[in-house]
């Protein structure tokens, strides 16, 4: 059978969807102060602008993945894209804090339909092992770029057009995806099972699936924690504007792409276990470097080295994790497995931000001096380094061929 000649254009479409979904996880970070002023949020309520999306996204990914397997991956992807368009429009038009939070919940629901179905379509579109490796590297690189590029795009758009446009940006992109989907994507589904458990325990008998998802979880903990901490440090301590902060941190997404493509080229030589180990080592090295930030820090010495190392590690780890996880399941379970993988990343991000921010606040206490605040950020970066160390231990112990665990459905 000849490969589908549309497969690379299909990959571009699916990667665009992945970029949009991941972008919305963080794009509102720098828009929160404007949203708070315009919609009258209570000071302790603005975190729901972020949390409502992350929680509904992460918690519904497994049903979304199973829906893709059973109802049709292209159909599920299209339905999710349509809902993402409508919910983004509602976010931008929100007239109150409650409306915005509800719209962000709907965005998370739609992302939970789009993401696992899109990744599953990548797996079913590319059947050749070599091409699939390249496709997954592109998918992961785009995802890593979207997670960090959000900070640049969000600040720039908010400053130029207002916070509403961080949501309105999704509307034309979603329209293009809806129009192009029927022309570029083939429908596929798993028609062999009906009424099966949402998450059959047998799927976790794969050491590679479990280990790959734990690597994704710990990598996301570090990625979201570092993005959150570096944004606050740069703006609160160094006095960067949102635009300057975005430009200064552009090295992170660039190096994430480099790490993703470089990593996939190394897989034939070192395997996914070696790549995951190398990625988590670089993540930890970047975090440890950032623990040296100072109240009067300079970009070239305090930020650039740590961000560059962290970006390389993020790209490598987020290639190795999904490849290990999805390579350890049958073709009929790719939607479910991709849902677990994406859920691990989203929930890991929420957990990482919570832990790192709590550690940072505990070390800062009630002090307001630059030295005290910077000390809190140093502690947060140290916590992120611990996440990377945990990921390394998991990569070395779990991502190795071995006898499957015996589990019953």
Automatic annotation (TrEMBL):
GO terms for cellular component: plasma membrane. It comes from the Bacteria. It is found in: Cell membrane. Pfam families: MFS_1. The chain crosses the membrane at residues 47-65, 77-95, 101-123, 135-153, 165-185, 214-234, 240-262, 274-294, 306-329, 336-359, 379-399. GO terms for molecular function: transmembrane transporter activity. It is a multi-pass membrane protein. InterPro entries: MFS, MFS_dom, MFS_trans_sf, Sugar_transporter_CS. Residues 10-403 form the Major facilitator superfamily (MFS) profile domain. Keywords: Cell membrane, Membrane, Transmembrane, Transmembrane helix, Transport. This is Major facilitator superfamily (MFS) profile domain-containing protein. The lineage of its organism: Bacteria, Bacillati, Actinomycetota, Actinomycetes, Pseudonocardiales.
